Amino acid sequence: MKAGVWPAVLLIGAALALWAPGSALAGMRARRLTGLLTPRSAPTPATGTVSSARRRWALAGAAGLAAGLLVGGAAGACAAVVTTVTGQWLLRAAEADPGEAVRTALERELPVACELIAGCLAAGLPVTAALAAVGGAAPDPLGAQLRRIAALSRLGAEDRQAWADVPAPLAALGRVLVRAGESGAAAVPALRALAQELRSSARSEAQAAVQRAGVWVLAPLGLCFLPAFVCLGVVPLVLGIAGEVFR
């Protein structure tokens, strides 16, 4: 075994230990549950971005050093640079987009929020109070958006102005409430219909994702089976026919 193998393995292990995003997130949640982490001390998005970038470079740099130790010499230096840059780019591309995560969270919680708002309106609450009540119970980022809209309405903003800058998943809810406020129509049936439509759409997307996963699962089998079939079935047959023809 080459002398550089064990240092390379140790470098990769250290980088994986530094990565550990799940353990940090679990510790943060535990501190929040015990009351030791207040909202003011929670990490900002910029801090999380910097920490994620450091972890990416640590893992990519360790992989590059490991490649350099395994190859050795000038070629090892080139391999280290290429591996580091490529690894950092791949890790960055593999990370979830924060905007996509927010959109997914909003779409997941929105059907329940529509049902809750409809229940509050059916009980006699005004729209602003219903939004504030559901916003206080719903998890962020949906709860924060509903509380912001309720606060704007209390300050005297018109319905269209209050719903003007909401994320795209909340646009349908805003249209229902704005239309009901301007026309005087009952919003409860429209909200319940919207919740049912959102659930049906989410179910269809999940089924489509499952079908795509089935295709991708069979892709490696096809990539392995087709070359083997060509090599073991087609090539000997062609060679046999060619041998008979050109004999």
From TrEMBL:
Locations listed in the record: Cell membrane
Pfam families xref list: T2SSF
Keywords from the named record: Cell membrane, Membrane, Transmembrane, Transmembrane helix
Origin superkingdom: Bacteria
Main localization, broad class: membrane
InterPro entries in alphabetical order: T2SS_GspF_dom
Domain Type II secretion system protein GspF: 114-232
Transmembrane regions: 57-82, 213-242
Bilayer topology term: Multi-pass membrane protein
Gene Ontology cellular-component terms listed: plasma membrane
Protein name (record): Type II secretion system (T2SS) protein F
Native organism: Blastococcus saxobsidens
